[in-house]
Amino acid sequence: MSALDLAEYLRLRLRALRMTTTEAAKRSGISRQTWHKMLRAEIGEARLSTVIQIADTLETHPLSMLRIFFNGREVSQAAHRDGDIRFVSGFVGDVTFPDNSPVVVGKTFEKTWEIANLGTEAWVGWHLQCQSEPPSTLQPVSDGIPIPATQPGEQVRLSVQLRAPNVQGVAISHWKCVNAAGEIMFPRQAGLYCMVNVVKA
After folding, report:
1. CA atoms within 13 A on the CB side of 62
2. Cβ neighbours of residue 119 under 8 Å, at least 6 residues apart?
3. Under a CB-based contact definition with an 8 Å cutoff, are residues 112 and 146 in contact?
């Protein structure tokens, strides 16, 4: 875990938004004392509601903050079932279009993630399935893509085609791994997501 990395990220976001901690505290409804603790990396853990409020204030996604805190890995590398280490997934990184990347309205683009098989069994016959309920702000060209067979310890890159909406603003799309039997894997994990900032041409 890296509270220092998260603190640095918060400072950068405040600077980018030209926002003081006093203003951030006022906008978020979170005390200045809590903000200062976060910025000094003096907070070991925070309630999810606090993380969401801070992310909202800094115009970013809560998952971005949690990924930084957990050293770029998925928030939970929990197994598919309690005590089952056969199927475990780890997030490696965003290969294309990291959070808040600009995308022109109506443009189709390719989002690529890299994930790792941290379990003891291969992923065979799996696919990546869009979980966003229609109408999704980011429309997938296809609702699902096959995941190549991935052995334990291997990393795999997964790419989906997405179409930006015709309106400006933040747009997001959520995805999860599904096995050959149609079961959602890693239900306790946040899954993969793409979040972009849709702008005028």
Report:
1. 12
2. 79, 85, 86, 87, 88, 89, 152
3. no
